[in-house]
Design brief:
By secondary structure, this protein is an alpha/beta fold. Helix content is 42%, strand content 19%. The protein has 2 domains: 4-269, Queuine tRNA-ribosyltransferase-like (TIM Barrel), CATH 3.20.20; 277-366, no CATH class. α10 (254-261) runs antiparallel to α15 and α14 runs antiparallel to α15 (359-371).
Length: 375
């Protein structure tokens, strides 16, 4: 199977129901992707991820480039074989990780020079090398190199970053046209522009002119208010082709997902369900639950009485709190299992609501319900 996207239904709110086909299987959209940064979702094995219904995993080229290296992974048959994952994989360019190394990198028009956070070794990442690394990894979907900037940012800084992102996207596109295989991989462009609506519109138009098979929105959910994230997302999706998938990078909390979907987003990813789990925070139908809280020490209830996951069917809050307090590995494993299930189940319910024409009322009730906190 090659790469294709079928838009099945559009809700009056702007929410979209679709099906994204890749050489390693199809993905029902809108979808949430649990992050597998270093070719692994921390705390969960691949067979568990399959049983949870994960159809696509994001991995990060920055981390696997530094360790164990993209050429080693290429020699072992690519990222799918290396990590024993038969379903679809998406890779970021690694740009966000490089740009987050404020004291360890230098940005120029030709690319980024940075030092490894592991051993201080110096590397150079250009749009072409970012594409070459991801071609070697063999991800089904991969991102162009873009320039991420801090929030808040000045208009001048945002404009320079958006212009550089466009220039790099053109170079990435040219490199993939010469060296890649569009029947095996899909390269996605990224829209930047910080929190300036006119810059977002201009960036979207420029990236669309390069005719990528799909588009991502980067540089959001990095500290700006949720309302601004939604506004910038809407500015961009209004200018993206209907027949191609849209990916909002790095979002979000459960109560926010329906807001992004109603702005026409098809794909999302975030470390929140896994990172929060490792810190004892569970997402539930009653809001967020901090399992470290002393009041759960003798609580016989499951983490979420409305959840059908394996953890909620079998274990009590008291036991999970005991595991956290005892610093047991199983605490992170069980909490991660629950949180990933919760996100995926939420997306299944959202897709069903779009299909039935009830998304608007469902989203309103869901947002109100999940915005209340359970401590």
């Amino acid at each position: 199977m090659s790469f294709s996207f079928q838009l099945l239904q559009t809700d009056t709110t702007g929410a979209r129901l679709g099906r994204l086909t890749t050489p390693h299987g199809a993905i029902d959209t809108p979808c949430f992707m649990p992050v597998g940064t270093a070719a692994t979702v921390k705390g969960l094995t691949q067979d568990v991820l399959e049983s949870l219904g994960v159809q696509i995993l994001p991995a990060n080229p920055y981390h696997v480039f530094l360790r164990p290296g993209h050429e080693l992974i290429r020699s072992l048959g690519g990222l799918h074989k290396f990590m024993a994952w038969p379903r679809a994989i998406l890779t970021d360019s690694g740009g966000y990780q490089v740009f987050s190394l404020a004291d360890l990198r230098k940005i120029a028009d030709d690319g980024v020079t940075f030092r490894s956070h592991l051993d201080g070794a110096e590397y150079f990442l250009s749009p072409e090398t970012a594409a070459e690394i991801q071609i070697a990894l063999g991800a089904d979907i991969f991102m162009v190199l873009d320039e991420c900037i801090e929030t808040p940012a000045s208009r001048d800084a945002a404009a320079r970053a958006a212009a550089r992102t466009f220039a790099w996207a053109r170079r990435s596109r040219e490199y993939f046209s010469a060296h890649g295989d569009a029947t095996r991989q899909a390269q996605l462009g990224i829209v930047q522009g910080a929190t300036f609506d006119d810059l977002r519109r201009e960036s979207a138009d420029q990236i669309v002119s390069l005719d990528f098979p799909g588009y991502a929105i980067g540089g959001l959910a990095v500290g700006e208010p949720h309302e601004v994230t939604c506004a910038m997302t809407a500015e961009v999706t209004a200018r993206l082709p209907n027949e191609k998938p849209r990916y909002l990078m790095g979002v979000g909390y459960p109560e926010q997902l329906a807001d992004y979907i109603s702005r026409g987003i098809d794909m999302m990813d975030c470390v929140l369900p896994t990172r929060s789990a490792r810190n004892g925070l569970l997402f539930t139908s009653a809001g967020r639950l901090n399992i470290r809280n002393a009041r759960f020490a003798a609580d016989p209830l499951p983490p979420d009485e409305n959840c059908a996951c394996m953890v909620c069917r079998r274990y009590s809050r008291a036991y999970l709190r005991h595991l956290v307090q005892a610093n047991e590995i199983l605490a992170a494993i069980l909490a991660t299992h629950h949180n990933v299930f919760f996100y995926l189940d939420l997306m299944r319910r959202i897709r069903a609501a779009i299909a039935s024409g009830s998304f608007s009322s469902f989203a309103s009730q869901l947002t109100a319900q999940l915005s209340s906190l359970a401590e």
